[in-house]
Amino acid sequence: MIKQLPIAYCLADQGSQALSPEIAALPIKHTTLSPRAQNALIRNAIKTVGELATKTDRELLGIRHFGPKLLAEVRNFLANVPTEMLGGQGTKVGVGGADASTLDPLSPLYTGTAGEPQLPLDVGVQQLLAILDPRQREILHLRYGFDDSQARTLQSVANLLGVSRARIQQIESKALRKLRLPYYQRNLDPARLALEATLVHENGVISVEQAKAVLAPLTQNLVLADSVLGFLLLLMPQFTYLKELGILGLRQPPFAELLPSVESICATFARCLAEAYAPLPFADLLVRCHHDQAAGDLFRALPEPFVRACLNSHPDIGIDADGHYSLNRWANKRLDDMIIVLRQHGAPLHYAKIAACVNQRLPAAQQTSAHNIHAQMGRLAQIFVRVGHGIFGLAEWGLEQDRNVANAAYRVLNTTGHALDLEDLTDRVLETWQVKRGSVRAAIDLDPRFAEVSPGRYWLTAPSPDQTVETAPNDDFSTLFGDVFMRQHSELACDCQRQDHADKLA
């Protein structure tokens, strides 16, 4: 005769009354029942373990395509599912009266014993994967590189297994949905709690490398490759993984509403540093970001600790011993050191002195000659401004890009709009150029753009107030040989006067 009592009553002890609420709410589609059994039960509106436990054998056998084989499978499943029985002492027991502390660690009722050490993270991951069927487990191993730390694309896994890409994606999605259930994630709690504590302490975001450092003490043999870490984060909805940036965020208040701005924050930091061409302290970098045309309003609206956390987590930005932030790609270049030397000095310097200071900052393998420093500064007119023979300053200081003394004199006259005495013109040129006074006179006499309208008074041959300063060749020989030219000019004038006097006497 077919039994008329519900299956749960037939399998449990005599004092048993009900399944645990957690187990009763477990969806049928997330159990380890075969797909055939799941489909048959779901089609007949049996969607949870609790609903299944209330059915009698007769009711189950009355389901279409549900025979004795599936009934035996269901009975075996329920006999092995941990249950919380309502005993007289209020103790937690399983099928056959087992104490909850002896249940499988994957059980939703597993609490462990007092003082029991946590299982290593790799053991927890293995137990999680063990609940999957062999096909699902194989696909996850291939996709996330558990065996060789080499993640594979859907197409490559499909080629290996001889099925379509869509089928691989379908199997993977179903496996991940099952693993995301809280019933199967208890052994991930140590990792989750460690990451949560770190993220709260670091104001909501950390880098992938920081996350690996947090999880490393919890593992034994598991290699925390990026793909494996990505798999773990897929199972923990508390976190947001920005894969392109390599940043992990905490999806909890007050950080959840700030996470959408992380990408824009990181892009602005990198752009402002690239425009600065050299390391900057946080305060100076933040000022540049506040004045950024694209993201200035965003930075002014965000809390500073969160903005700083994004900067500290940026994979392409590092911080030196002085607390200055710089782009990592500058590590093997000298440009930032050249700018730092000039900023520290606060005034234009000769390229030889700049080279000496730069080489003191660099390891022996990266040191270079003063000639190479001079050539590099000459090529980067948007950063360095030549203000004398071999003397350079920074364009950020507002120095004029005259490039030579003649252009400086042309700028001065074009700005004033009238002729100037040589002494006055020389004084104004020397405000921005570090050359000798004779070099200014030599540059003016050699340049056809200037005319001496009266003794010692100069004006432009073609004045135009709206005309920008022209750029003459970089090789300003008047700067190099100004004094020599002036002496030769004086000697030539004296020779001419003597020759005229001799001709008159003759």
The gist of it:
The protein has helices at 7-11, 21-24, 35-43, 49-53, 57-61, 68-80, 121-130, 134-144, 154-161, 165-179, 189-201, 208-215, 226-234, 262-276, 282-290, 296-301, 304-313, 335-345, 351-361, 370-379, 405-416, 422-429, 437-446, 477-505; strands at residues 205-207, 239-242, 247-250, 280-281, 317-319, 324-327, 349-350, 384-388, 391-394, 420-421, 450-454, 457-460. With 506 residues, the protein is mostly helical.
Labels describing this entry:
single chain, about 500 residues, mainly alpha, DNA polymerase, domain 1, 5 domains, three-stranded antiparallel β-sheet, 24 helices, about 50% helix, disordered N terminus
Mean pLDDT equals: 78
Could you estimate the helical fraction of the residues in percent? 40-55%
- Which sequence of strands runs across the widest sheet? 1-3-2
The CATH superfamily of the largest domain is Winged helix-like DNA-binding domain superfamily/Winged helix DNA-binding domain
Q: What does the main sheet amount to?
A: 3 strands, antiparallel
Number of helices: 24
| CATH fold title of the largest domain | Arc Repressor Mutant, subunit A
Task: Specify the structural class.
Answer: mainly alpha
CATH class of the largest domain: Mainly Alpha
Outline:
rod-shaped
Number of domains: 5
Strand content: 5-15%
Query: What low-confidence regions span 5 or more consecutive residues with pLDDT below 50?
Result: 1-5, 11-17, 83-116, 467-482
